[in-house]
Amino acid sequence: MSEITKRRLRLGMVGGGEGAFIGEVHRFAARLDDHYELVAGALSSQHDKAERSAKALGIARSYVDFEAMAQQESEREDGIEVVSIVTPNHLHAPVAMAFLQRDIHVICDKPLTATLAEAKALSQVAEASQAQFLLTHNYSAYPMVREARAMVKEGKLGNIRSIQVEYAQDWLTHSLEQTGNKQAVWRSDPAQAGLAGCVGDIGSHAYQLACFVANTQAKEVLADLSSWVDGRLLDDEANILLRFENGAKGHLWASQVAPGNENALTLRVYGDQAGIEWHQETPNELIYSVLGEPSQRLRRGNGYLSDAAASVSRIPSGHPEGYLEAFANLYCEFAEQLLTATTNPHLPTLATGLHGMRFITASVYSSQNNGLWVPIGH
Amino acid sequence: MSEITKRRLRLGMVGGGEGAFIGEVHRFAARLDDHYELVAGALSSQHDKAERSAKALGIARSYVDFEAMAQQESEREDGIEVVSIVTPNHLHAPVAMAFLQRDIHVICDKPLTATLAEAKALSQVAEASQAQFLLTHNYSAYPMVREARAMVKEGKLGNIRSIQVEYAQDWLTHSLEQTGNKQAVWRSDPAQAGLAGCVGDIGSHAYQLACFVANTQAKEVLADLSSWVDGRLLDDEANILLRFENGAKGHLWASQVAPGNENALTLRVYGDQAGIEWHQETPNELIYSVLGEPSQRLRRGNGYLSDAAASVSRIPSGHPEGYLEAFANLYCEFAEQLLTATTNPHLPTLATGLHGMRFITASVYSSQNNGLWVPIGH
Amino acid sequence: MSEITKRRLRLGMVGGGEGAFIGEVHRFAARLDDHYELVAGALSSQHDKAERSAKALGIARSYVDFEAMAQQESEREDGIEVVSIVTPNHLHAPVAMAFLQRDIHVICDKPLTATLAEAKALSQVAEASQAQFLLTHNYSAYPMVREARAMVKEGKLGNIRSIQVEYAQDWLTHSLEQTGNKQAVWRSDPAQAGLAGCVGDIGSHAYQLACFVANTQAKEVLADLSSWVDGRLLDDEANILLRFENGAKGHLWASQVAPGNENALTLRVYGDQAGIEWHQETPNELIYSVLGEPSQRLRRGNGYLSDAAASVSRIPSGHPEGYLEAFANLYCEFAEQLLTATTNPHLPTLATGLHGMRFITASVYSSQNNGLWVPIGH
Amino acid sequence: MSEITKRRLRLGMVGGGEGAFIGEVHRFAARLDDHYELVAGALSSQHDKAERSAKALGIARSYVDFEAMAQQESEREDGIEVVSIVTPNHLHAPVAMAFLQRDIHVICDKPLTATLAEAKALSQVAEASQAQFLLTHNYSAYPMVREARAMVKEGKLGNIRSIQVEYAQDWLTHSLEQTGNKQAVWRSDPAQAGLAGCVGDIGSHAYQLACFVANTQAKEVLADLSSWVDGRLLDDEANILLRFENGAKGHLWASQVAPGNENALTLRVYGDQAGIEWHQETPNELIYSVLGEPSQRLRRGNGYLSDAAASVSRIPSGHPEGYLEAFANLYCEFAEQLLTATTNPHLPTLATGLHGMRFITASVYSSQNNGLWVPIGH
What is the 3-state secondary structure (H, E, C) of chain B? Predict the structure, then answer.
């Protein structure tokens, strides 16, 4: 991490109360590099739970209503400068708007919103705001993912032809939502998750990762979505064919019903000179294969890597960095951007999220029409 | 290998002269378990080359013309009982017909023929023959593939939902055919290879493997084929969506232009209870993951495996068996079938090959029509 | 991490100024779970550097002299409660004594001291102190290491027979100390590192890990130490035979001159019923092999693991946790121990460190005598 | 395999009747490349079993007594030219002598003999014979092992400093010999196996592999042998420290009681410039790590390998070759040596075996004396 002025940004959080998964991840991420101080939160819309959660975390100012929080924090001299939104998808847009309209910077979990219409509306609000927006596509902040992106940009793969990306899990193989599991309930509820299930939850990550590394985006998609579990309203698996703007083709497989897969996000990119391969579950390695030469195992923390990887790496090679470190990289770089008034081209923005919603929407539409090639649009 | 009467079958070979790859593989396979004696061959259509090849191999009777060979061998008392066909695809049908019409058993490399029409014609000839037919889909004869198939049949995966199969190579990344490389020349020539390139050459293997293990076949396919190299007339990469008769869905990726991949055939099958994963390049292992339990690494040669695996395994666990051993399993089982008048349900037949040609044909048609779901047909 | 009262412990640090590696690691570890607040430091014995380092970190009270720091902090009402010692080895003893004598808790990096004599003296001081002592053998705090230990204790391996442990690096293959590299300079200087080089620096970790998991300790060792690099005064590689109190035998290999190894700490333990295998560079997995059954791949974050692993795990399976998280586990558990007045049996103590010094001393002695079996002693 | 005159050598076999493991391996190996014809055998010392075994294998001439076989075969014009000895260790010497004295070439399994005295006596007989001798240290014939040896010779690792070699199995974890298992019975019987158990059976392989690749041999050893199973007379595990003639040091671990290990022979060699790593269970790969560069994964069958690997490789990269192919390489090269009157420097000879017996003997002696450094001698 590059050196930045030692001042902690005042941070708030919406969502992320007791029992939440991603809220805790954001808090670890905010804390690791010491650039934020969590001072306010609307951790739950239930009063007691919000209070209890705030107290357990030692957060000074607890709110129940995010609108009230945005209003009051914007009026305090020591009010929050940044808010992290870690609610279910359907609240991303209204919460983000509330803070952006008051020029409070937003860190928002993905997907951007529940629907494309919301995403467009949010986009307009953001344009009118002085505040900045970070979408936490955390996988794109792993050092070896950054290295991969740099390699593609430098032409080390030649012209990109083929992209295979996949994100497989197994936790929704059975009807976990019917057991009351909080994570499963909202993700399988169209009112909270939006128009897509698996495609929105993890397909969007896989798609962003592929675009981020290959330095392109899809121009059209053809999807076959499935919903394997009885009574499940949203998709839990997707096979999506991709055609990219740079001429490459590819396939995206996302599944939450594939037994034996925990969080198996894998990206492979092939050009006419070389190929690369990266696995999120062993993130400190990147396999690089030049045609006709032995495959090379590039590993985080080594002197032969580019600045792109080195700048988001904390400890020496062989000491594994993981998911929290990658997540923290986004927080760290966003703090740096805010404090130094620079722009970091690697950070996922609201535009990234808007494009992601177009991808999700086109995929759902394609599948509903038995597999048409559907343009993603602009 | 189970004990069989010690008599060597008299074997002939068509194709496989100097410089051939797959002909040599067939000879290794025929020799390993000592059930065949190679006594005649039409190893090349060029007289000198045929003679030279036969002499180098110590083959007694050398022919130039496969018709003459079929005729004369069928008339000898000590004539061949079985012929191996290891020519380019377009010769499979005429050669096979010549021998089947004379009731000589046929071992034929894949794909069955160059076109579906040829496959149908060959099928009719075979029906009228007393002879038997083996198609060398060798990957289905690896012990751990047999184990996988047995596990699916026993219901150890539950209901099959998802199949991901891929076969990636890199040897055609550049225009090898223009350098005169014999293997590349005929595979990229429609007159010799038939209607498909990569899909026919390796996609057909991947598809057969998936069907063999999951104990089903596709009812419709949707394909996006590519031909990446300038001047190449046939496809060198394919992304194919699959819908299977048992309700499962899947994806098949075949590529001969993916740098870093040698012969990377990988199969993953997921049911509602468990998943399995197998890689051809580490064939002695099968990963088996029951939902909620630690993944298990099943390995060839262990007492906990089924007869399905044990019966095609030669040496103790930890002593790796490879490609030649799997190939030899087909030869061994075919010999056993011929000598004992039993039927081995695991052996790929002419019907397997005919279905494979339907798959290839439907994939090409789908891609030519920008990705339609095309029924495979019967 | 189990729930603890939300109060941050006031933390100080000795060593860890600009350019230090392990000091930064300790700070990450202290911050991650929010149980400490770093408020004072003697980060360097050079005044300017100490000041600059403290400022960059936002540390309120900066000292140059650790004695002065111990004295003054012990007199403040808001003085530090805990100090982290991250100096070269030869300062561990005097610094720790200074704080222990004032009943300030100590977190100290390994090895305990530079010599066994110092370790004994420190031990006496500690006995007379009210304060507690944590030795940061961080590898023993990985969730899957805890699982391994629990499995051994439950008898899942049967009687332990054989232990193979190794810790290989390559960063000292050439004479890095002659280039002025700070980490290399003090580690290869007997005045700062103590009586051993590689054995003290990483051999001590490997040995502690083996004892921790196998729930035993060596009763005698036989060592062959090497110093491969011209002019290097301390060992940079060690092969050590081990005989344990529980009757097991084993081997420890530590090397800092093995090209291709970054931080390759690997432990294998075999009993008469099962074996386990763990690699620090892929720490989220533990291979468990019951004789005659398929190997199992136990992975962090799954429901089938014991509390021992679950209690030191933060995020769901498939989201890799790494080195910093494991290090932070020690800080977190030590905070919990201090705040709740409980004793965590998994935490490495001063006694652990004293035994470690006996191991180092016996190994050096054995090697100096061309490989005698040397008792470790008590 | 290079081209050789097409004439099959007449082969005999002593040992290897029904139920034998290694005899069958030798037959596969002899058959694969078609350079041998098995025409005579003394497959068992029991008449019925010998007859039955010979018949099942289609062997023309069956003997019960190896002396009679040697005598009669040497007198026939069409008598065997080569004999394979696949008996328990104690018969290696007398059988080999019987054939060598009649100038019949010998292929003999390892270890050379049951005792060093026998080895010396055999050595003298061999010197007086016109016949040649091959010791089947098959692991040294894997293509990637040959590559490793070539790399060391070319100086690609720099000066060799450290060698770690291990060979772990688990099949003797319990007292298999008491169940009547044929393989276990003779290997744990000093009268048949000789002075060592595990060290002789697999330690000898590991040691030969290390010496073969590193192009050196040990000058002294220090061993700690164990016999873990009640009633077992010979060692079943060994930790052996090594000092080599070229100045390198190392460690050899051999175990037959390590649950989870099938045939885990692993070699790692480190020089002052680079390191290599090879695993017998994934034999088509060799990891090569130059200090400061990404590790490379060298794989069999690629154009970037040396002739040393290419000349013992049959099929393209990605098509795994295994144990039988490596074993067959020895048979193939020996045939070539016999037929062309050349000398292949890679083939293990009687001198290799004699040195191996010195290693075994020194290891046993060292352990019996509680770990002395014992010179291996010449």
Answer: CCCCCCCCEEEEEECCCCCCCHHHHHHHHHHHCCCEEEEEEECCCCHHHHHHHHHHHCCCEECCCHHHHHHHHHHCCCCCCEEEECCCHHHHHHHHHHHHCCCCEEEECCCCCCCHHHHHHHHHHHHCCCCCEEECCHHHHCHHHHHHHHHHHCCCCCCEEEEEEEEECCCCCCCHHHHCCHHHHHHCCHHHHCCCCHHHHHHHHHHHHHHHHHCCCEEEEEEEEECCCCCCCCCCEEEEEEEECCCCEEEEEEECCCCCCCCEEEEEEEECCEEEEEECCCCCEEEEEECCCCEEEEECCCCCCCHHHHCCCCCCCCCCCCHHHHHHHHHHHHHHHHHHCCCCCCCCCHHHHHHHHHHHHHHHHHHHCCCCCEECCC
